[in-house]
Amino acid sequence: MRAGNRKTRGEETASAGAETPLRVLLACTPSAATRRLTAELRRAGYGLAQAVDSAEALRLCADQPPDIVIYDLAMRGMDGPDFCRALRLQDPHRRSYLILLAPAGSNGNIADGLRAGADDFVTLPADSAKMLARLAVGERVLRMEAELRASNAQLRSALERLEVTQAALDRDLLEARKLQQGLVRERSGRFGPFQLSLLLRPAGHIGGDLVGFFPIGDDRIGIYALDVSGHGVTAALLTAQLSVHLSGASDQNVALRAAQAGNDAVPPAALAHFFNNMMLEEMNTDTYFTMIYAELNHVTGLVRMVQAGHPHPMLQDPTGQVSTVGQGGMPVGVFENPIFDELEFQLPPGSRLLITSDGITEAANRAGRLLGEEGLEAIMRTNAFLGGHAFLESMAWSVSEYCRGERPDDMSAVLIEYLRPAEAIPITEH
């Protein structure tokens, strides 16, 4: 390509060896000035074609599109603006650089031509230095456009490769989602008068929440709800590891290992401290998690619980009144000597305990207002007539409606219901 203050086009081409001269179409009425301009262009090394009217110029542009078109506004046939529009419509994807030759005093036609698609103009009489300077500008523009097209082509190719990679990643994440959902082996359980129902709904393909339960002897069950910080693969891998430590197999379940030796199961607070030491000593990561782990005696209704930074459980008594449980406690995996909240309470018949992750209480509407404990309490009151998975699904729907489907965090919940015994219906004889 040409540059300012340089050799002629022919000298530059000879030195480059492989460079192809730019093709110029000179569409002018024959005259002495035209002949001089033709000689100058050839001397500068341009590949030159000529047309004597607008129809021939458009035909030559269609047959072999030139790099630069020089069009005389006094040309027979179309006026300048009409020719500009016809040229641009002829091949909108392959733009030739269009220079208008304008007789003195034709400012109106020049402005109309530029609006119709011309790139530059030269007023007549045009000396060779002025014309060659305009051609140099055209070359620079064409070079930048070519570089931009090449960059866009590379970008499109990179995007296509990225789309293929993303599609493969999406397939893998969908499979990972299935595996993660499989970590919750049972979504519900019935233990005497107690009914357990679980909800696990990641915000993306995979998430960092985990809920579940397992039996402890004949009269107790362990119930857990975990929320790993962050999202994506890192959080999902940690939840997978934690699920192994809380699985129903007594040889892998940390809470049940002591029971193998004839001792009682690990108390809730001791389990939280075990996980805290594991996170600090074995995990080389900044990830932490919140947790609630409870032992429920399904014969007496006694609950022993540890709360480690997890949202407060919501207790709904038989009259429908809702209150929070616990003081909070510290997350697992942050402090060497954490303080966890240990509590013990009795569930009365007809009550229920709802444990949720912060993906529910911290769901925000478009104004940025969080649902909070008050919003969750309202949902529990509104859906007091529902139980089990019907209640959890209705709660999840209400949360999604509150944040208009823009839910950035995972949702998980455990619903513990202390069912009342069915009342006998007396039969009246007639």
UniProtKB/TrEMBL annotation:
Presence of keyword Coiled coil: yes
One of the Pfam families matching this protein, by short name: Response_reg
SMART domains: PP2C_SIG, REC
Modified residues (4-aspartylphosphate): D72
Annotated InterPro entries: Bact_Sigma-Reg (IPR052016), PPM-type_phosphatase-like_dom (IPR001932), Sig_transdc_resp-reg_receiver (IPR001789)
Residue ranges of coiled coil: 141-172
Residues of the Response regulatory domain: 23-139
Entry keyword set: Coiled coil, Hydrolase, Phosphoprotein
Family annotation (PROSITE patterns): RESPONSE_REGULATORY
Keyword Coiled coil set for record: yes
Identification of the protein by name: SpoIIE family protein phosphatase
Organism: Paracoccus marinaquae
Taxonomic placement: Bacteria, Pseudomonadati, Pseudomonadota, Alphaproteobacteria, Rhodobacterales
